[in-house]
Amino acid sequence: MRFSVLGAGGWGTAFARLLASRGQSVTLWARDPEKARSLARERENRPYLPGVVLPRENLEITSDLSQAAATDAIVFAVPSFAVAEIAARFRPHARPGHLFINLAKGLDRGSGRTMSEVISDHIPDHPVFTLSGPSHAEEVGRDMPTAVVLAGVDLELGKRLQREISTPRFRVYVSADIRGVELCGTVKNIIAIAVGIGDGLGYGDNSRGALISRGLAEMVRFGRTLGGKEKTFFGLAGLGDLVATATSPHSRNRYVGYRLGKGESIERIVDGMAMVAEGVYATDVVHRLAEERGIEMPITDAVWRLLHGKSDPIALVDEIMSRAPKEEKIG
Asked: Which of 105, 188, 326, 329 is catalytic?
């Protein structure tokens, strides 16, 4: 199977390298022609994945979408806010037999739709899958053991993709709960920001464990209300990715929270980052959907208020930890 990866950031580059190392024929598409030429020449994405060498044999790099369309599987490896734009640009190049794999973690800020739904809106009548789970590009690019979940409606096609993508160091599970998987990937980034805030304040493992576990409860409530299957939130896309994102030094969302906890403004933090922290964008849409549906999400609400200047880091964590005692429930 021939693959194209749209997006030459850290994750797109790591995933393209993974597929090429697996023996697949891969085309990596970069929006910027100069960046595509630099990657093709240097075989290293120094701004995003320094030290990771890209193979020459079966990995082509281009800025031409028509060239990227001359494959079987199209992988969206762009930030969630860019998925609609890239899908619209790709639509004239879509052909029968194309299938799509989404790697972005977030919801559309205007409609609240998942990334697979956004792709289907722009490129209808094609199968769309989402790949998610604890999978930092810095580790996948260096062949560190990783396990993820590939979710989609057509499980037979999903199992074929599972065989095409899996390697001895990259284990792929399949799931039919694509909605649950995508909701997991959205909310866990918000919880990681909250955990980072606690870390920035100098709080310890106790508060970190509390925020992660109560954050999981929020994920379950949100996901179940919006149509995800509860068991999905205790798997790789849910609990697995939440733990990795909330604790890893590679996590951009935890990093944003950490600097917020140190007293920096969100504007200064975001302006100085080369890569996107999806949780910053996810917080607005998840907060809005939770309010519309009456879903109790105190951590998300607290992060939203901090990002909008309605709270401060110490008050945020203290408020979450000092809520009225109640029976513990997950979901």
From this structure: 188
